[in-house]
Design brief:
The protein is of the alpha+beta class. The chain contains 61 helices and 44 strands. The strands form twelve sheets. The chain has a seven-stranded antiparallel beta sheet. Strands 41-40-39-38-44-43-42 form a seven-stranded antiparallel beta sheet, with helices on one face. A five-stranded antiparallel beta sheet has the order 3-2-6-5-4. The protein is elongated. The termini are far apart.
Length: 1889
């Protein structure tokens, strides 16, 4: 029984003590006046009566009622029912606050007070003060409170004749039962009657309609998120204008959480004065008046539910985990069925007439039933995870959280994890875990109804029926007697609050009330206490748990087979069949990824343990340990599947004898797993073991069979679970004698204590490393010592986090010294012991004893381990495979000998046995070697089934781009080991784990040496330069004294002079000062606009090199003439050095030696081609306008159109650009910048006039170019089709308005007529392009083209005015920078060699990352610009490429243009020349871009040259018959330009190469045959031996200009990036790549068949071209072999091949078509339209457009005539049209007599005067030549006679014979005249010869 009301209080308005605007509440009276003993008076009630603050009000409001909830220090809830009414303010009360209250009320709309209204009764300034009647109770009977307070108010207002004291006294003395479903009628003595019903069970919450209202206000989704938020301990804030709504919403939310109890701050109505409570760090559920919404919005981590608006706002920083699927969606759909039953019927054609909608109260119970089912599903089987730690004197119960999550299959689930860690669940375990107690609806549901819920899942109607059944029970619990709710309580009349109250609420007589209370108390003492006996029972456990979602076992579908493998392997191990076991081991290790297999392993191993000990031999021990490690490596720190728990007894059981008296146990080999350092794991294990032992205490000995699995005790037979035993014991407990009770308590306590000692030992076994000097083990496990944050403890998340952070400051392993391992372990064990012993009630004496024991245990164990460690070192090491020595190049030396490593798979699937099939070559076990040239791994696959394949992976040290330390698991022992990941720009990746025998110092040494070799301090330290020379890498450069002034000293002096003269501008005109060479060492950053050299300010002077340079001059000149550039210039007809020196004026260009001392431009070659008319001394001035002084020079001339291609660096600000910028008229005194610009302009003019067509016309036929208005265009993105480069209207407009500079007059005079036409129209010549998209006919365009196009960077040419004399035009394009190439290459590397296996296998992820790299887009841009330049050159205009500094993209474009335009560069010799000229001589910075030295380390690797090679590869793919070299040649150069094996690609310019003495050493130094220093020399030597660089399909068109497609869709990924041969490493070092010769086939001695030479060729392992050469290579090899067998010296392959080709050509062909070699006949002719740039005039203006269309039909009628006029070769890539087509002098049919005894046959004969041969074919259209008669061998042609079998009808004069040196041919024509003609033709042919 309990009091209905504890206190009755009257609270009234009082002025604020500090006289501020607001008032405050004052307690006028409270009854009883002294506190109850069991229940003190709650403080601060006056705040809760008016939560929005006490304020006066200008009108009388109706009375209000609400219930506030207060929670006291013991978590008891007190319900304060408040009824507030308003009374007029008495004059005495009107303090200072009353006067301004009215004004304030106008603004503030708080607490339901209205604005001043004229209708208010009483005088206008009358104010009303609130007064509140409060009833405080611990029971929750809201309606009774409302009625009782209403009754008191009614008696007062209506003036009823009833004593208020009596009513209050009766109220305070009314007693009602707490629960049990009784019914009580009460009366307060005013003629009233109320019926109170108590709920059936106290534990179920009472919700009335609150849950249903909550769903109505917020909706399903919002309530569900609030539910999850409250469960996962977030802060929830309700807002509403109604207080009653707030308390209902809070009550509803709490009702939903049942069976969990909310244990944090719970304030349904929070007063305004206490709003700062909202910023508390702990979770809460609070309600606040909506007036304070603004304050609520400032809170960052509070979920705000607005009841009036129906919204829930979740802040960004808060994540509410949703319910696990499928529960989330199931709950959602059931809720909608309950709330909106019509939803199901909404779509029916004939809906039922009426729907029975449940009442609000019933709906409320249905909603609660849904949540009750949800909890039953979530927590199903929870009792199987309870650990009974103690039974007496009080049950101590722990919950095994990890096992629960593991068995439910919800380890990953955020929601359940948080719920189980929360305070509410901890309360749930301690309250509901008790095995013997009263049960309620939830216990029944979770135990018995789970199966039904499973079955109903997919039947909504059945689910609804179940919900309704549960709802009935809940409803019955709240309303046990539904019919008898007859209340009779007086209420005040309508609008009674507006009538003038007769008087204020009276003061009650305290004495009288107190007397009534005392009377009742006296009566109670006599009566016996009404104790209702609770019915206690054993709580049912229900069925064992199952996973929430049955995970489909697809991954381990064949698990039975796997388990069989595991069992077999273990039995082999224990039977000593080691070979069998070894074969099965890889499969077992794979199978152990599955949970079932790991369980099976633990069970099988248990069977082999006798009496807690199993002694194994060394091999068995190794196998067992490996399998255990493999099992444990996938265990999380929680060990949710109990694997570590099952293995724990085993690791202390399996052991091996090391020597007499020294035994090593398995635990010393399985320590490296995170689970051992997790306190939660040890606690769960400990409690599980304690439970087993305590259960054994109470079981009869016969029953006690120790179940296998710790933590889950399955019911075997009639075996009772620990909970059943405990329940039985709790039932008997009260019946036992005191002594017996004591005895049981002691037994239990000592059981726990002995387990604690046992665990202290176990923990020391697994935490102390075998080598206690190493603290590494523990450092890696940060988990040690995080005991306080153990999730089994009842700490909230926020606290646990802070504890975890603070632990290492206090005593963690972080600061532990190496020797302090023992201390750290002792601390860890002590924390554990403290926690579990206090929780399980061990006496303090025992606990102290334990603390003393732990250090001794640890110390003892360390001593045993030392012996074990010592002995284990003496063990013969396991036979590791022998290290395979790599083959080295001549001159390559080993720097570090092999370190044992495992090579791990890296995401390229083929090596690991991926989709390409083939074996799993990786992981492989072997060693890594570091040599002066390469990093090499050699080894064997770890998978024994792969066989004895050698795996080699290597790359040049110089190619290393990234090195990072990693920590990986070794594939065999599954131990965590340090590793290295090395990535190279030759697309190799070594991902290695060091073997445990490799110390960290060796690994560190390897890294340091690698770094030293990768970045030598000086270029002389590179492999190419140290090879074969005595120079040691470490020697400081240039120690010797220079003989004679070297370039360096000269340059130094020159620079000094330069510095002196700066500032004295016009001192002298004689002295020449070259630009500063100071900052050569550190190249300029990419983005620097222009580097102005030191002597920039000095005026240009005539160039007279000082006399000191004279002697060396001649030497330099002669050697320069031999350079590649010079040979090429002579080939192109650009002049020879002799003609330049004699100044033959007929030549337009000359070779100038002006740069022979590299004085003008450091990065240019010594000899340059410049226009004939320009003097050498002018060049110095011109060069200043260009970046890096790289002024425009000619590098190629078209043989046909005589247009020239020039290259230069980008312009300085004061170059052409400055010249074109609109300037004011300059002052008369010419500034020096002007003179440079003028020189520059003269220079460009000279270039234009040196072109034959333009020399006489002096440029009158071109018009002006660009204005600043149209610089907006750029090279299009891959999808764009047309690049607009100008806009005529804008052009003319801007030209007219531009102020005229110095060229104004020239521009204006007589030229205005043509101003509006523009570049595009000029380029386009006439109207539209041809219909098939081919470029317009070049001949047609010529007259209107500009003479010179300058291709510049768009950014540089901003604001450029048109060219003054209008002979050149600027084409601004947007190009990418070097740093973009670098970034793109990085991504390309990652895409091709990912480094770790892809998350989604298959080609999609590769293609996605390839696209992200944008590499192909850059190649597309390069090809596009190159084709544009090729078109311009082909149409007769010259082009100057002037991009960036002139050494990266410029070089790429210029080289590609020459390659596309000139077939010579597509030969082996020509390509070499091209690279030497454009890349080496013109100063591409190979060392800087390849980061060859320490200085370049920061700038990183930028593969500009590789990108060029990729472009060439793309062209090669599209035109396979145009290149003499094979694709392998490109890959070879791609590999060796970064390998630093050859000197060719070292250093940044010819100047640096001369300075280092690399350029001209060849002549004098040929004393001994050296290793090849030059890559070209190497290629030449290799080509003599093998045709590997030769392209058999080479059959070039004469003068064919190639125009490749450049769309990204036409480009292919170069296989250089993706292929790999693990058999021998990269195939580019040819000497190393030669595999062992194949053994010849031999007859077997027993006369059997010879052994087959067939072998399996694996992708990614073997080099396919070598294992399976193409037909021609195979035949050439065969020929060489046969010749050797015949004893003849074998012929060179090239001679043999040339002979074959010649023989092919000899055989003629009748129909005018032929191919140079029958081997190359292709069925598909390549009819390709080349990619043209066609220029079209559109409606807006003309455009220079890059046409990128794909193949279109070449046949088009509109342009057929023009098409015919064009050279066919420029349009079609007709590979099959060769020179033979014209060589048919005479042809016809002749009969020819076959050889001896063969018949006559008619053949088609062709006489070819050019080739001097007579060819014959089977018939006229036959393409295959059947034979050739060489006319050189013919001796005579004479009339012949018919022989046997000759055609009968023919005149015998038609026969003639041809006699050759070999034989006589008999012919017969169709008639005599034709015979005569044939004879004459042959005779004339012979006489010509």
């Amino acid at each position: 029984m309990a009091r209905l009301a504890d206190y009755f209080v009257l609270v009234a308005f009082g002025p604020h003590p500090r006289g501020s605007g607001e008032g405050q509440g004052q307690i006028l009276q409270r009854f009883p006046e002294k506190d109850w003993e069991d229940n003190p008076f709650p403080q601060g009630i006056e705040l809760f009566c008016q939560p929005s603050g006490w304020q006066l009000c200008p009108e009388r409001n109706p009375p209000t009622f609400f219930v506030a909830v207060l929670t006291d220090i013991n978590s008891e809830r007190h319900y304060c029912a408040c009824l507030t009414f308003w009374e007029p303010v008495e004059p005495t009360q009107e303090g200072p606050c009353a006067r301004d209250a009215a004004a304030r009320e106008e603004e503030a709309d708080e607490g339901g007070s209205g604005a001043l209204s004229p209708s208010a009764p009483g005088p206008p300034d009358q104010l009303f003060a609130p007064k509140t009647l409060v009833l405080v109770s611990r029971l929750d009977h809201v309606e009774v409170f409302r009625n009782s307070l209403g009754l008191i108010y009614t008696i007062h207002v209506e003036g009823l004749n009833v004593g208020l004291e009596n009513v209050v006294g009766n109220l305070l003395t009314c007693l009602i039962p707490l629960a049990g479903g009784s019914q009580r009628t009460i009366s307060l003595g005013a003629g009233d009657r109320q019926v109170i019903q108590t709920p059936l069970t106290d534990s179920l919450p009472i919700s009335r309609c609150s849950v249903a209202l909550l769903f109505r206000q917020l909706g399903i989704t919002n309530v569900l998120s609030l539910f999850c938020a409250a469960l996962t301990e977030h802060k929830v804030l309700f807002l509403s204008r109604s207080y009653q709504r707030l308390s209902d919403a809070c009550r509803g939310l709490l009702a939903l959480l049942f069976p969990l109890r909310y244990s944090f701050t719970y304030v349904p109505i929070l007063p305004a004065q206490l709003l700062e409570v909202l910023s508390t760090p702990t979770p809460f559920i609070i309600g606040v008046n909506a007036a304070f919404q603004a304050e609520a919005q400032e809170l960052l981590d509070v979920i705000v539910a607005d009841l009036d608006g129906g919204t829930v706002t979740v802040p960004e920083c808060v994540h509410i985990p949703p319910l696990p699927e499928p529960l989330q969606s199931q709950t959602h759909s059931i809720l909608s069925m309950v709330l909106d039953p019509e939803l199901e019927l909404a779509d029916l054609a004939f809906p039922p007439p009426t729907m029975s909608i449940s009442s609000l109260k019933m709906q409320d119970k249905e909603l609660r039933a849904v949540f009750l089912r949800l909890f039953a599903q979530l927590l199903q089987g929870y009792r199987w995870c309870l650990h009974m730690v103690r039974i007496h004197p009080e049950p101590v119960i722990r919950f095994h959280k990890a096992a629960f999550l593991g068995q439910r299959g919800l380890v990953e689930d955020d929601f359940l994890m948080k719920v189980l860690e929360g305070m509410a669940f901890a309360g749930f375990v301690s309250e509901r875990g008790v095995p013997y107690r009263p049960t309620d609806l939830f216990d029944e549901l979770v135990a018995h109804e789970v199966a039904r819920m499973r079955a109903d899942e997919n039947h909504p109607q059945r689910v609804l029926r179940h919900v309704k059944e549960l709802a009935e029970q809940l409803y019955k619990n709240e309303n046990p007697y539904p019919a008898v709710a007859m209340h009779k309580v007086q209420r005040p009349g309508e609008a009674s609050h507006l009538r003038r109250a007769p008087r204020p609420f009276p003061r009650l007589d305290e004495g009288m009330v107190q007397w009534i209370v005392d009377q009742a108390a006296a009566k109670m003492q006599g009566a016996p206490p009404a104790v209702k006996a609770e019915k206690r029972t054993t709580v049912p456990s229900g069925p064992p748990m199952t996973a929430i979602v049955e995970r489909s076992g697809g991954l381990h579908g064949n698990s039975a087979r796997r388990l069989e493998v595991v069992r077999n392997c273990i039995s082999y191990v224990f039977e000593g069949k080691m070979l069998e076991a070894k074969k099965l081991l890889p499969a077992v290790l794979r199978a152990l990824k599955g949970r079932a297999a790991r369980r099976c392993l633990a069970q099988e191993l248990h069977l082999h343990v006798q009496q807690n000990r199993a002694v194994l031999d060394h091999q068995q021990f190794d196998f067992v340990v490996r399998m255990m490690n493999c099992c444990l490596q996938d265990c999380t720190s929680l060990d949710e599947h109990g694997i570590a728990a099952a293995l724990l007894p085993l690791v202390t059981a399996f052991c091996r004898k090391l020597s007499p008296g020294v035994t090593q146990f398995a635990y010393s080999c399985v320590q490296e797993h995170v689970v051992w350092s997790t306190p939660q794991f040890w606690e769960a294990m400990f409690y599980g073991d304690v439970q087993t032992h305590i259960r054994a205490l109470y079981l009869e000995p016969a029953e006690d069979q120790d179940p296998f699995s710790v933590g889950e005790a399955p019911l075997q037979g009639d075996e009772r679970s620990a909970l059943d035993v405990a329940s039985e014991q709790r039932r008997l407990w009260p019946t036992l004698s005191r002594e017996k009770q004591q005895e049981l308590v002691q037994k239990e306590e000592s059981t726990v204590f002995s387990q604690a000692i046992h665990y202290a030992n176990r923990m020391s076994y697994l935490l102390l490393p075998l080598d206690s000097s190493k603290s590494r083990l523990l450092r890696e496990r940060a988990g040690l010592g995080e005991l306080e944050s153990a999730s089994n403890s009842l700490v909230t998340n926020s606290m646990a986090g802070s504890v975890a952070e603070s632990y290492d400051t206090e005593s963690g392993f972080e600061d532990a010294e190496a020797g302090d391992v023992a201390g750290a372990v002792v601390r860890f064990i002590n924390r554990f012991v403290d926690k579990v012993c206090t929780e399980s009630g061990v006496t303090s004496d025992h606990l102290k004893g334990l603390h003393v024991m732990v250090p001794d245990i640890v110390q003892m164990h360390i001593e045993t381990l030392e012996a074990v460690h010592r002995e284990s070192k003496r063990l013969p090491p396991i036979q590791k495979p022998k290290l395979l020595r790599p083959r080295l190049l001549p001159g390559e030396e080993c720097v570090l000998d092999g370190l044992r490593v495992y090579l791990l798979p890296d995401g390229r699937e083929e090596g690991a046995g991926g989709p390409g099939g083939g074996p799993a070559l990786l992981p492989a076990e072997g060693a890594v070697f570091l040599t002066t040239y390469r990093v090499i791994f050699t080894g064997m696959p770890t998978d024994p089934l792969v066989g004895e394949q050698v795996v080699v992976r290597s790359f040049p040290v110089a190619a290393l781009t990234k090195e990072k330390r990693i920590s990986v698991q070794t594939p065999v022992d599954q131990l965590l080991q340090d590793g290295l990941q090395l990535r190279s720009c030759t697309f190799q990746l070594l991902k290695m784990a060091f073997d445990e025998e490799v110390g960290s110092d060796s690994a560190e040494l390897f890294r340091k040496q690698l770094h030293k070799l990768r970045y030598p301090p000086d270029i002389r330290g590179t492999f190419a330069l140290t090879l074969g020379s005595a120079h040691t890498p470490g020697r400081p450069p240039r120690a010797t004294k220079d003989k004679g002034p070297s370039f360096r000293t000269l340059s130094r002096n020159l620079v000094k002079n330069a510095k002196k003269t700066i500032g004295r501008q016009y001192v002298t005109r004689k002295k020449y000062n070259p630009p500063s060479w100071e900052h050569r060492g550190q190249p300029s950053p990419e983005d620097q606009e222009d580097e102005i050299s030191v002597s920039e300010e000095l005026e240009p002077s005539t160039l007279t090199p000082s006399s000191a340079l004279k002697p060396s001059d001649r030497m330099t000149m002669s050697s320069l003439v031999e350079r590649a550039c010079c040979r090429d210039y002579q080939r192109l007809g650009l002049g020879t050095l002799s003609s330049s020196l004699s100044r033959a004026k007929s030549e337009p260009f000359r070779i100038s030696p002006v740069n022979r001392m590299y004085a003008i431009c450091r990065s240019y070659p010594g000899l340059l081609i410049v226009p004939q008319s320009i003097q050498d001394n002018a060049l110095q001035r011109v060069s200043r306008c260009y970046r890096q002084n790289r002024f425009p020079v000619v590098c190629w001339r078209s043989g046909r159109s005589k247009a020239v291609l020039l290259r230069s660096g980008g312009l300085h600000g004061k170059g052409v650009v400055g010249l074109f910028k609109a300037q004011n008229a300059p002052s008369p005194g010419q500034s020096q910048a002007d003179s440079s610009s003028l020189e520059q302009e003269k220079y460009l003019q000279a270039v234009v006039s040196s072109m034959p067509r333009y020399a006489d016309a002096s440029g009158r036929n071109t018009l002006s170019g660009f204005s600043s208005a149209h610089m907006g265009s750029h090279v299009p993105s891959p999808r764009a089709r047309v690049t607009t480069l100008s806009n005529p209207m804008a052009a003319s407009a801007s030209r007219r308005t531009a102020p005229r500079g110095k060229w104004g007059s020239v521009r204006a005079s007589g030229r205005s007529g043509g101003l509006s036409t523009d570049v595009g129209s000029r380029l386009a010549g006439v109207g539209p392009p041809q219909a098939n998209g081919a470029p317009p006919d070049p001949g047609f365009l010529r007259p209107q083209r500009a003479a010179l196009y300058i291709i510049g960077d768009k950014a540089q040419l901003k604001g450029v005015r048109p060219d003054p004399l209008q002979q050149w035009e600027l084409v601004p394009i947007e190009v990418f920078e070097a740093r973009q190439v670098k970034a793109s290459f990085k991504k390309l590397l990652k895409a091709c060699v990912p480094g770790c296996p892809a998350t989604e296998p298959g080609p999609a992820s590769f293609l996605r990352s390839l696209e992200d790299s944008e590499w192909l887009i850059q190649i597309h841009k390069l090809l596009q610009v190159s084709v544009l330049v090729v078109e311009l050159l082909d149409s007769g205009s010259s082009v100057l490429v002037s991009l960036e500094d002139g050494w990266d993209i410029t070089t790429q474009v210029v080289s590609l243009v020459q390659l596309l335009s000139d077939p010579f560069y597509r030969t082996l010799e020509g390509f070499r020349l091209l690279v030497e000229k454009e890349w080496l001589s013109f100063g591409h910075r190979f060392s800087h871009r390849g980061a060859h030295t320490l200085a370049g380390q920061s700038s990183g690797f930028t593969p500009v040259f590789l990108q060029f090679l990729d472009c060439v590869h793309q062209i090669h793919l599209q035109f396979p018959m145009e290149f003499e070299f094979s694709p392998f040649y490109l890959k070879f150069l791609g590999y060796h330009h970064v390998s630093r094996r050859f000197r060719t690609f070292l250093l940044d310019s010819d100047y640096e190469r001369i300075e280092l003495g690399l350029l001209y050493e060849e002549k004098g130094e040929r004393r001994a045959p050296q290793a090849c220093r030059s890559v070209w020399e190497y290629v030449e030597r290799l080509s003599k031996r093998t045709p590997v660089f030769y392209n058999y399909m080479y059959a070039p068109e004469d003068a064919e200009v190639l125009r490749p497609y450049s769309n990204v869709s036409n480009l292919k990924v170069w296989d250089f990036y993706t292929e790999e041969t693990l058999a021998e490493g990269p195939p580019y070092d040819w000497e190393l790549a030669q595999g062992p010769p194949e053994p010849p086939e031999e007859e077997r001695p027993d006369g059997g068949a010879p052994q087959s030479r067939r072998r399996v060729v694996w992708p990614c392992y073997d080099s396919r071209p070598r294992a399976q050469p193409d037909a021609i290579s195979r035949l050439l090899e065969e020929m060489q072999r046969l010749e050797t067998e015949l004893g003849r010296p074998p012929e060179r392959w090239k001679d043999a091949w040339d002979r074959v080709k010649a023989a092919q050509r000899l055989e003629g062909r009748p129909d005018g078509r032929g191919t140079p070699s029958s081997l190359l006949v292709s069925s598909v002719p390549h009819h390709r339209r080349s990619l043209g740039v066609y220029l079209q005039e559109g409606p807006v203006g003309s455009t220079l457009s890059l046409s990128l269309d794909s193949d279109q039909s070449s046949g088009s009628t509109a342009s057929s005539s023009r098409q015919a006029a064009r050279r066919s070769t420029s349009t079609l890539y007709s590979q099959f049209q060769t020179a033979e087509s014209e060589n048919r002098s005479y042809e016809g049919t002749l009969y020819k007599k076959g050889a001896f005894m063969k018949p006559w046959k008619a053949r088609w004969f062709v006489l070819d005067k050019t080739k001097h041969q007579l060819r014959y074919y089977d018939h006229r259209v036959d393409t295959e030549c059947k034979g050739v008669i060489d006319l050189a061998e013919v001796e005579a042609v004479a009339p012949g006679a018919p022989t046997m079998g000759a055609p009968k009808t023919v005149d015998e004069k038609a026969f003639f014979d041809v006699k050759t040196t070999r034989r006589v041919y008999n012919f017969c024509a169709q008639d005599v005249p034709s015979a005569q003609q044939w004879v004459d033709q042959i005779q004339s042919c012979l006489s010509d010869a």
